[in-house]
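Q: I'm writing up a methods section and want to include an example of the input and output format. Could you take the sequence below and give the corresponding predicted structure tokens, formatted cleanly so I can copy it straight into the document?
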Amino acid sequence: MKQSNRRTMLVTGANRGIGFEVSRQLGRAGARIILTGRVPQAVRRAVAALRQEGIDVRGELMDVSSPRSIHACARRLERSREAVDVLINNAGIYPEGTILSMPAEALYDALSVNFFGPFHAARAFLPGMIQRNYGRIVNVSSGYGSFAEGLEGPPAYSLSKAALNALTLRLASEVQGDVKVNAACPGWVRTRMGGPEATRGVEEGAVTIVWLATLPKTGPNGGFFRDRKRIEW
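A: Here is the clean output for your methods example:
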């Protein structure tokens, strides 16, 4: 984990669940963490909890469904001269229903958070990574977004994650040098989204994300991984 030392890593949707655990693991490894969320009180609580563990963390408000909020956060960080080395697009929503029964708004909402959030965040932070010739983007996806695995799960969620996977591939094709863009499937994790019956704890769910966030220069680019092993798109 030496690769993460003193890197600045921004995690979206990090006030709970997988995002919080990813922030904790990366912070324990020595990274500076920018913990983002859309509810001020929740962000403050999460930051306070990590600081009690001695982690170097600051909180920032970011609603990933709002391009204006994403770019406002980027401008605040630029003014404070905080360069983001690693972007972890973790925030996500999980609307349920079938293609024919769900409100059309459910798909719009899922795309807004699960696809357009990472899209706008990449546009905000990737240019700086390219300029500095160092950066990692980790898009937290799902096997439900994999064509190879049948695009299972609620359609609004699976379609938005399939779009995120496509975004991962296209972004990866536009970077070079020591800049890498990959997607991670954390598996079925016991969070508010995954529910109490899920088979994995947040510690296990965070493993592949943390690994991709701290890849060495020789690490992969443009891949989709579960348990640190490549899976099919």
